[in-house]
Amino acid sequence: MSMIHCRIVTPHGVYKEMDTPIINVDTEDGQRGILPNHMPIVMMLKIGKMETEENGTRQEYAVAGGLFYFRENQAEILTDAIENKNEIDAERAARAKERAEKRLASDDPNYDLQRARIALQKAINRMNVKGIR
Known about the structure:
Blueprint: E1 4-10, E2 13-20, E3 23-27, E4 30-34, E5 41-54, E6 57-71, E7 74-78, E8 82-84, H1 90-105, H2 113-130
Parallel strand pairs: 1-7
Antiparallel strand pairs: 1-2, 3-4, 3-5, 5-6, 6-7, 6-8
Helix pairs in contact: 1-2
């Protein structure tokens, strides 16, 4: 079976490298599934979910946006943050969501509303990937 070698890089370094037969990602243009021997492609990732199959097990990740690059069965993902479903701290994600909602509801001019909206999207995404509604 053909495989894709995937390398995920964050500002902290290489998060993970793995071989997978499929990568599903949320892009700015919608959901995309990448299989081995796909044509070369570069896509912007949005805050969303990524799914892979690793050692016969489906894995889900919360991705904080970024860049996806694929060529010759090599995928590289550059992102500010990524967490496997099993790494997500549900209580921390819920607190982050609550903080962002409070900032968005506040009249305080010192809050950056765009930053609060992005923080809210990331927290909701992490909760969705973890399976918390």
